[in-house]
Design a protein that fits this description.
The structure holds two protein chains of two kinds. Chain A is mostly beta strands. Chain A has no helices and eleven strands. In chain A, the strands form two sheets. In chain A, strands 2, 4, 5, 6, 9, 10 and 11 form a seven-stranded mixed beta sheet that branches. In chain A, strands 1-3-8-7 form a four-stranded antiparallel beta sheet, with no helix packed on it. Chain A is globular, with a radius of gyration of 13 Å. The model of chain A has no long low-confidence stretch (mean pLDDT 94). In chain B, β9 and β10 (99-100) form a beta hairpin. The N and C termini of chain B lie far apart (41 Å). The chains are: A mainly beta, B mainly beta.
Chain lengths: 115, 110
């Protein structure tokens, strides 16, 4: 079975641009969470989606948005990129039926560099 | 808001020595999870603790959840070079956010 897949693996953008990151969860998983991991720090919670609905949001500005599709895949959009948005963006998939008490399966991430 | 703090930030050990990382939450947790991230990799789930005072073992790894459900620890006995990586605790207060600590990076010298 395929694990969590994220694309692209690497991305270079300039300040002010917009970016879309994609994630496909494990088959059978209905929940997707997005995390931002700056080098040397722990993953910071951005969003959790379940059945196409946002169930949780972290302390990120409105420049960050996401959505989940009927096939449970998800996109994370970041507008008006800042240098500080440079990070590894991780997608985590889970079954979705136990809220925050579930094991998270992470993808390999998208490394975003903003120049 | 909810915060999860981990200490130490880094730990250098000689192969065969023991290692412990500690996790403290500013609020009572409904559960705590532990993840390991190898250099250049992504976090991989190790274990989840739910009950007050719970202790779980996985081979050389021992995980504890405090009586007040606000702290946790991971102890590795007789470290090996394969234990190298960053260990994260991640807490949940019953909602849909799983909050990660900053991690403890373990270096093992052969």
């Amino acid at each position: 079975d395929a694990g969590v897949t994220q694309s692209p693996t690497h991305l270079i953008k300039t300040r002010g641009q917009q970016v879309t990151l994609r994630c496909s969860p494990i088959s059978g998983h209905k929940s997707v969470s997005w995390y931002q991991q700056v080098l040397g720090q722990g993953p910071q919670f951005i969003f959790q989606y379940y059945e196409k609905e946002e169930r949780g949001r972290g302390n990120f500005p409105d420049r960050f948005s996401a959505r989940q599709f009927p096939n449970y895949s998800s996109e994370l959009n970041v507008n008006a990129l800042l240098l500080g948005d440079s990070a590894l963006y991780l997608c985590a998939s889970s079954l979705g039926n136990r809220g925050g008490s579930e094991k998270l399966f992470f993808g390999s991430g998208t490394q975003l560099s903003v120049l | 808001g909810q915060q999860v703090m981990q200490i130490p930030q880094y730990q250098h050990v000689q192969e065969g020595e023991d290692f412990t990382t500690y996790c403290n939450s500013s609020t009572t947790l409904s559960n705590i999870q532990w993840y390991k991230q190898r250099p250049g990799g992504h976090p991989v789930f190790l274990i989840q603790l739910v009950k007050s005072g719970e202790v779980k073992k996985q081979k050389r790894l021992t995980f504890q959840f405090g009586e007040a459900k606000k702290n946790s620890s991971l102890h590795i006995t007789a470290t090996q070079t394969t234990d190298v990586g960053t260990y994260f605790c991640a807490g949940n207060t019953g909602g849909f956010k799983t909050i990660f600590g900053a991690g403890t990076r373990l270096f093992v010298k052969a």
